[in-house]
């Protein structure tokens, strides 16, 4: 059995964590989402520039593409799916 002091400390820790999450949600959550969305957009652009020939857009010479290939291989299937996904006007307006 745990002591009453241990339970109080445990509940104070849970309260502190909950207040921290609320504070994060109120102050930083929107900024973090925007930064992650911008990072994903730039990553898509980089992959498009370097591996656009997979979609029929030749941009860089194959030498640089082959040098970058080991770093991009884990991302190719997801990137291809995102780039070839049908988009609607509502997708661009929704953010």
The main pleated sheet reads as: none
Structural class: mainly alpha
Instruction: Say how many strands there are.
Output: 0
Low-confidence stretches: none
Average pLDDT works out at 82
Mass-distribution shape? elongated
What is the terminal-to-terminal distance? 51 Å
Q: If you compute it from the alpha carbons, what radius of gyration comes out, rounded to the nearest whole angstrom?
A: 22 Å
Helical content (DSSP H or I, runs of 4+): over 70%
The portion of residues forming beta strands comes to: under 5%
Structure annotation, total helices: 5
Following the backbone from N to C, one meets helices and strands in this order, namely HHHHH
Tell me the domain tally.
Answer: 1
Give a structural overview.
The protein is mainly α and about 100 residues long. It has one domain (about 5-85). The protein contains five helices and no strands. It has helices spanning about 5-25, 30-50, 60-70, 75-85, 90-95. The radius of gyration is 22 Å and the shape is elongated. The chain starts with a helix and ends with a helix.
């Amino acid at each position: 059995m745990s002591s009453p002091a241990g339970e109080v400390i445990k509940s104070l820790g849970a309260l502190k964590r909950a207040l921290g999450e609320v504070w994060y949600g109120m102050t930083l959550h929107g900024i973090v989402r925007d930064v992650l969305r911008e990072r994903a957009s730039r990553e898509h652009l980089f992959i498009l520039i370097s591996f656009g020939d997979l979609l029929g857009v030749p941009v860089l010479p194959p030498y640089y593409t082959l040098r970058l290939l080991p770093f991009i291989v884990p991302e190719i299937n997801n990137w291809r799916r995102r780039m070839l996904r049908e988009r609607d006007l509502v997708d661009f307006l929704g953010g």
